Amino acid sequence: MYLGLDLGTSGLRALLVDGGGAPVASLSESYATTHPHPGWSEQDPAVWVAAVDRVLSRMAAERPGDMAQIKGIGVSGHMHGAVCLDDVGTVVRPCILWNDTRSHAEAARLDDAPQVRALSGNIVFPGFTAPKLVWMAAHEPETFARVATVVLPAGYMNFHLTGETFADMSDSAGTSWLDTGARDWSGPLLSAGGMRREQMPRLIEGSEVGGTLRRNLAERWGMRGDVAVVGGAGDNAASACGVGAMREGEGFVSLGTSGVLLTGRDGYAPKPESAVHTFCHAVPGQWYQMGVILAATDSLNWLSRVTGAPPAELSKELGETISGPARLRFLPYLSGERTPHNDARIRGGFLNIEQATDRRAMTQAVMEGVAFALGDCARALGQTGADLHSMLAIGGGAASHFWVETIATVLGVPLDLPEAGDFGAALGAARLAMVGCGAGTVEEIMVRPGVRATVEPVIALAGTYAEAFAAYRATYPAIRDLS
């Protein structure tokens, strides 16, 4: 048996898989995020520790025989968060999360520093880890002085499980401290951010064993013998492992809280100015690239809150099939935007509201706005030479055929819907544990799921959606200075 832990922004999920990689059991535990000030987003790592204990204690009670057979654990985590430890491993302040924008000025300064883009392969976004520490140095100097080690959320869970500080390449590539091409911490990048190499965790590949589960935890959760803990992965790389998006052109559209358009790459081909993320993959010798929008299903959830109608009800009003773009236009910049704008200040809105505008029209505009934002991501990925030829649609939003068909038509690419099953980050983490424990090779274990249906672009409507997309793209420069 193998265990995958997915440490998400809103909760922790544990997935147990058998020796062939088939899911056996899954349990989850939710937790909250705090927002002490506008633009701030924090979590106390103690809530993650409590969540994993509750989940695995329940699993031990419900499936003691399976838990006794666990050989390896992999952890996936939300990226970029700064967990700061002192010299005895105590957390010195709440974790500053990926969607925290307080360090936008520090990010801009780092991004302008010599060699930063060239070495990291990426723009320094406000959500990345390095600018958070620069902000701490300026605004919380006494706390910053106590920082002996900085780990990411998945790395902190690894530390809790094993007592050792290690991190995988895919997660570390989102810090702005890693030389992404060389897959190693960079002296110049660390120096630019006021950090030292000895403050960094040990780097390993995601499929490499980093430590052994603490004996007291193994006994508490009913695990026998030595249980290996592998490097794990950042959440998007873990999701790629879960759906077999490992090589050139293999990728997915993820409609989750944020939106992701991701493809595997066989080589290192950064283009920072496109605002595409170029990160190490979770396995040796591979990279991946993705465009990221900050509000995908979060945009529909926002509309749900203001209308009082559940997201599923809003979606149902649209039916299954598209008939052409709405005149009403929605800009999904509810928390700023990453690809392609790298703009933490921009905010969303509706354009062309009129007397006849109703809830249905607003729902369609929201879905189209997200689709157009993903179209922006596709254009940016195309600038790097990425070929989006084999794409899955995953995430909660993929349950809407209308939404997936809209995206397929905007991108001009068929989107495959996987067979019913579990193909998320928790599965990818478990697969990394399998590889690390010798259950098979990356090629044998990181396989693509079966396809239950393919959603084709509606060719007859491609022209009208292209016109609407062009109008959408013209809107950002027109409103940028109005926010």
TrEMBL record:
Instruction: Tell me which Gene3D superfamilies the record gives.
Output: 3.30.420.40
Q: Does the keyword Plastid apply?
A: no
Any idea which residues are catalytic in this one? 235 (proton acceptor)
Q: Which residue intervals define the domain Carbohydrate kinase FGGY C-terminal in the entry?
A: 252-436
What is the enzyme's main class? transferase
Which SUPFAM superfamilies does the record associate with it? Actin-like ATPase domain (SSF53067)
Domain called Carbohydrate kinase FGGY N-terminal: residue spans: 1-242
Record keywords, A-Z: ATP-binding, Carbohydrate metabolism, Kinase, Nucleotide-binding, Transferase, Xylose metabolism
Q: What processes in GO biological process is this protein linked to?
A: D-xylose metabolic process; xylulose catabolic process
Q: Could you tell me what reaction this enzyme catalyses?
A: D-xylulose + ATP = D-xylulose 5-phosphate + ADP + H(+)
What GO terms are given for molecular function?
Answer: ATP binding; D-xylulokinase activity
Question: Would the keyword Lyase be found if you checked this record's keyword annotation?
Answer: no
- What EC number(s) has UniProt assigned to this enzyme? 2.7.1.17
So where does substrate get bound? 79-80
Described by its record, this protein's role is as follows:
Catalyzes the phosphorylation of D-xylulose to D-xylulose 5-phosphate.
Name assigned to this protein: Xylulose kinase
Q: Which organism is it from?
A: Sagittula salina
Q: Which gene encodes it?
A: xylB
